[in-house]
TrEMBL record:
<keyword id="KW-1133">Transmembrane helix</keyword>
<keyword id="KW-0812">Transmembrane</keyword>
<feature type="region of interest" description="Disordered">
    <location>
        <begin position="37"/>
        <end position="56"/>
    </location>
</feature>
<keyword id="KW-0472">Membrane</keyword>
<protein>
    <recommendedName>
        <fullName>CcmD family protein</fullName>
    </recommendedName>
</protein>
<feature type="transmembrane region" description="Helical">
    <location>
        <begin position="6"/>
        <end position="27"/>
    </location>
</feature>
<feature type="compositionally biased region" description="Polar residues">
    <location>
        <begin position="47"/>
        <end position="56"/>
    </location>
</feature>
Length: 56
């Protein structure tokens, strides 16, 4: 009976760690995509001429 408890706890622990890892990776990827999107938008804004900026 003790062996099943240890095995179950080990499997549950691994499951939780894998879930946390994938959650962290997803959040990290979202943050990176958002930073790239903001940098691209800022670069596009800076590359516009003053006249086109006035029209927007």
């Amino acid at each position: 009976m003790m062996m099943y408890t240890i095995l179950t706890c080990t499997i549950m622990g691994l499951w939780v760690l894998i879930g946390l890892y994938f959650g962290y990776m997803t959040i990290r990827d979202d943050i990176r995509n958002e930073m790239e999107r903001r940098a691209k938008r800022k670069k596009e804004k800076l590359s516009q001429t003053p006249l086109s900026r006035k029209n927007n």
